[in-house]
């Protein structure tokens, strides 16, 4: 499937850079460098290995509220800057051959202000500009990233999932690492999964697939929308250095060698099972998926047809759906046998449930802080009015002085309470009130409509 990549924010841009790097390292060709990255900052970032300088876009560099650090966690500012600089973004899109692509993949860290705020704006813009399918690869924050990151991600999901044709989730709690690092092994692992999945069906080798697949298979799999999760497994094998004719002769002559075929079939089935049962990009109950697709990639001699069919039948039972598509991606010079599985429109995703709940708790804490702040201000106003009124007891002597001191102490206490409430509100985040996802399956439901 030919893809155009669009990275949003610092982390999203680095993720695109790694995808391009893995594509080149593995000899695949599904983007052919057709990528664009954009960030909000005063000066352009460095550290890119695969994205050329002319394919990097800087937004907000003249905006008065954007600092050297970017939007400094202000989601609303990020959305405002993206909206204001849409003409600049559209001009940059002219460098992408989107009309020659089968789809667009927007990559963003949904827990960051830029990835969430600007990402939602740019996803909506791209969906309106092009007819090609629009997919989102969104990183979800880890628990240690805090409540504001969870709130950003929940708001982004509420906007992005219904807009995009499908949203591939990447959970940083499941895949811990340093997203700010230029060499995060978890990001490279994600890039490997993306490259193995989307490169299948592209004519970048001289081998002919037995179970050929093309972009329509991926489009059909992701068509239900909602949240998607990707699984992957690999094992080392001997590369197949023979020519095409020799490989075909060897393949047809294998018919009577049931022992070798049974061994290869078991290897393939085991690999697909590992891909589905080990670390998915976001943990989910695979039986809640509406559709699934499995791709087997590696030397042609290792791609057992019997094992492939057995693995497909197992996946149908595991995912509880007959809508299982499959294809192979022969790579004669590869020394790795790989299986990648994508589960589309999964509705039972505990991590997203937990993320939504934390977002709601954070929003409630912020609103509670605002209410406490308002009560404290009213209390101070009341005390000030009381102090300003003449006191007969105060006029008569020392008793009045004692009352004034007590009022002053009470006012000080109220001021301290107000300061504490201000701090709580600041900790809870600064984003404006936006409806959040209220129930566990709302994301999937919105995406499926």
Kindly report the name of the CATH homologous superfamily of the largest domain: Tubulin/FtsZ, GTPase domain
Radius of gyration over C-alpha positions, nearest whole angstrom: 28 Å
Number of strand segments: 10
For the largest sheet, list the strands in their spatial order.
Answer: 3-2-1-4-5-6-7-10-8-9
CATH class group of the largest domain: Alpha Beta
Write up what this structure looks like.
This protein has 449 residues and is α/β, with parallel strands linked by helices. The chain folds into three domains: 197 residues, Rossmann fold (3-Layer(aba) Sandwich), CATH 3.40.50; 134 residues, Tubulin/FtsZ, C-terminal domain (60s Ribosomal Protein L30, Chain: A); 98 residues. The chain is 49% helix and 16% strand. It is built from 14 helices and ten strands. The protein has a ten-stranded mixed sheet with strand order 3-2-1-4-5-6-7-10-8-9, sandwiched between helices. Helix 1 crosses helix 4, helix 1 packs across helix 6 and helix 5 packs parallel to helix 14. About 10% of the residues have low confidence.
Describe the structure concisely.
This protein is of the alpha/beta class.
Helix and strand arrangement:
Elements: E1 3-8, H1 9-25, E2 35-40, E3 56-59, H2 75-84, H3 86-93, E4 103-109, H4 113-129, E5 134-140, H5 147-163, E6 166-171, H6 185-199, H7 215-222, E7 227-236, H8 244-252, H9 258-277, E8 291-298, H10 305-319, E9 324-330, E10 336-346, H11 350-388, H12 392-396, H13 398-428, H14 442-448
Parallel strand pairs: 1-2, 1-4, 2-3, 4-5, 5-6, 6-7, 8-9
Antiparallel strand pairs: 7-10, 8-10
Helix pairs in contact: 1-4, 1-6, 2-4, 4-5, 5-11, 5-14, 9-10, 11-13
């Amino acid at each position: 499937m030919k893809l155009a990549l669009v990275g949003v924010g610092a982390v999203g841009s680095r993720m695109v850079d790694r995808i391009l790097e893995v594509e080149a390292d593995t000899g695949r060709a599904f983007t052919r460098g057709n990528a664009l990255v954009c960030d909000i900052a005063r000066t352009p970032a460095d550290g890119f290995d695969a994205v050329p300088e002319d394919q990097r876009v800087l937004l907000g560099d003249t905006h008065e509220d954007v600092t050297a650090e970017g939007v400094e966690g202000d989601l609303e500012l990020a959305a405002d800057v993206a909206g204001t600089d849409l003409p600049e973004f559209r001009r940059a899109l002219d460098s992408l051959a989107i009309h020659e692509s089968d789809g667009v993949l927007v990559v963003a860290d949904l827990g960051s202000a830029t990835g969430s705020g600007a990402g939602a704006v740019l996803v909506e813009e791209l969906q309106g500009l092009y007819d090609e399918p629009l997919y989102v690869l969104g990183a979800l924050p880890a628990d240690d990233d805090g409540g504001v990151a969870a709130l950003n991600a929940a708001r982004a999901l509420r906007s992005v999932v219904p807009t995009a044709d499908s949203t591939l989730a990447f959970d940083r709690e499941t895949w811990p690492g340093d997203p700010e690092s230029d060499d995060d092994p978890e990001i490279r692992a994600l890039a490997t999964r993306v490259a193995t999945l989307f490169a299948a069906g592209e004519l970048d080798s001289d081998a002919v697939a037995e179970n050929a697949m093309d972009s329509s298979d991926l489009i059909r799999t992701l068509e239900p929308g909602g949240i998607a999760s990707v699984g992957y497994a690999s094992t080392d094998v001997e590369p197949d250095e023979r020519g095409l004719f020799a490989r075909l002769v060897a393949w047809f002559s294998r018919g009577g060698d049931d022992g070798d075929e049974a061994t290869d079939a078991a290897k393939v089935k085991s690999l697909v099972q590992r891909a589905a049962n080990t670390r998915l990009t976001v943990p989910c109950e695979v039986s809640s998926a509406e559709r699934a697709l499995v791709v087997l990639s590696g030397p042609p001699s290792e791609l057992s047809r019997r094992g492939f069919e057995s693995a497909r039948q197992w996946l149908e039972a595991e995912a509880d759906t007959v809508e299982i598509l499959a294809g192979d991606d022969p790579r004669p010079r590869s020394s790795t046998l790989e299986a990648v599985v994508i589960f589309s429109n999964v509705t039972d995703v505990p991590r997203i449930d937990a993320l939504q709940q934390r977002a709601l708790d954070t929003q409630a804490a912020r609103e509670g802080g605002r209410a406490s702040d308002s009560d404290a201000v009213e209390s101070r106003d009341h005390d000030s009015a009381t102090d300003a009124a003449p006191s007969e007891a105060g006029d008569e002597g020392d008793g009045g002085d004692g009352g004034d001191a007590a009022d002053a102490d009470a006012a000080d206490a109220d001021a301290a309470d107000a300061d504490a409430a201000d701090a709580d509100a600041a900790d809870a985040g600064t984003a404006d009130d936006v409806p959040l996802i209220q129930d566990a399956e709302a994301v999937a439901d919105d995406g499926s409509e």
